[in-house]
Amino acid sequence: MRKASEMNFGEKCIIKDINDMNPSYKRILEIGFTPGQEIQLVNTSIFNDPLTFSLRGTLIALRKNQADSIIIN
């Protein structure tokens, strides 16, 4: 079970599930990180926080603890 925060630069993955124990669970779903969607890690910053993902043609930056709640294949 991998997390989106563990993706390599440029890697594409499908979202399998979102951990509902994370306080940002609803926000993550509302901005489009839903099961079945393809995401790609397109940018990282120093210390890997935040991470920038491409999702549905949009770039979205998430904190590492938020990306930890996104479970990928």
Describe the structure.
This protein is mainly β. It has one domain: Ferrous iron transport protein A (FeoA) (SH3 type barrels, Roll), CATH 2.30.30. Helices cover 14% and strands 40% of the residues. Strands 1-6-2-3-4-5 form a 6-stranded antiparallel beta sheet.
Q: Could you say what the CATH architecture is?
A: Roll
CATH topology: SH3 type barrels
Q: Please identify the top-level CATH class.
A: Mainly Beta
**CATH fourth-tier homologous superfamily:** Ferrous iron transport protein A (FeoA)
Averaged pLDDT: 93
With strands numbered from the N-terminus, the spatial order across the biggest sheet is 1-6-2-3-4-5
Q: How far from one another are the termini?
A: 7 Å
**Total beta-strand segments:** 6
Outline of this structure?
With 73 residues, the protein is mainly β. It is built from two helices and six strands; from the N terminus they run ββαβββαβ.
Write the layout of secondary structure elements.
Layout: E1 2-3, E2 12-18, H1 25-30, E3 38-44, E4 51-55, E5 58-62, H2 64-67, E6 70-72
Antiparallel strand pairs: 1-6, 2-3, 2-6, 3-4, 4-5
Descriptive labels:
single chain; 73 residues; mainly beta; SH3 type barrels; six-stranded antiparallel beta sheet; 2 helices; 40% strand
